Amino acid sequence: MSNEKPLYTMEKAMEFLKKGNQRRLANIEKSKQNPETGDKYKEFRQRLTEGQNPFAILVCCSDSRFPPEIIFQNREGDLFVVRTAGHVVGSDAAGSIEYAVAHLKSPLIVVMGHDKCGAVTAAVNKAEVHGHIFNVMERIYPAVEMSKNVIGDSIAAAVDQHITNTVEYLKNMEPICKKYYQEGKINIVGARCLIDTYQVQWLI
Ligand SMILES: [Zn+2]
């Protein structure tokens, strides 16, 4: 546990969220009122109320610096996002992914890790963890073990190995993902995103 004083108070945090949402509402209103694009925007919002057809499922790290909608410049309704620390897939994440595969018919799963991942770093360093954080570590340890003989940056090697392991796990995850993958209905790929540029490097 850190004894450092937090940067923000809980009141400030609530205020940021409320103000952020107000800015969003004002932007939506402005877009609707724009004489050139207003009708198209109203149509777009209407489509969103009718349902979702995300073209990709993003399984990625909860790290606040890697928001997939911003990295891929996608609009609302495009990406079905499952984020956990270190993009670990436990039962709740698995169920969310299966829902998007089987019910929303998204044809692509992207497992996106990133450099400087705190979860992977903690697993490499065998950091002492408390509470449910251990469940996250447990799912990263196999990648640490598999990459331990790689020469060079041990964290980068573990990040890549963990992405590969997660892709393989999903390809073999019964009953839904494995079936859809083997029938050629979905593809499952891995990617690494870089913090300094947001460049996405595909590990296929
Ligand atoms: Zn991370």
CATH topology value of the largest domain: Beta-carbonic Anhydrase, Chain A
Oligomerization state of this entry? single chain
Q: Per CATH, which architecture of the largest domain?
A: 3-Layer(aba) Sandwich
Q: H/E series, N to C? A: HHEHEHEHHHHEE
Largest sheet: 5 strands, mixed
User: What is the helix content?
Assistant: 40-55%
The CATH class of the largest domain, by name, is: Alpha Beta
Q: Are there runs of 5+ residues with pLDDT below 50, and where?
A: none
How many beta-strand runs? 5
Helix/strand class = alpha/beta
Overall form: globular
Output the strand order for the largest sheet.
Answer: 2-1-3-4-5
Give the termini separation.
Answer: 38 Å
Number of domains: 2
What percentage of the residues does DSSP assign to strands (E)? 5-15%
Listed once per kind, the bound small molecules are: zinc ion
Question: What would you give as the CATH superfamily of the largest domain?
Answer: Carbonic anhydrase
Average of the residue pLDDT scores: 96
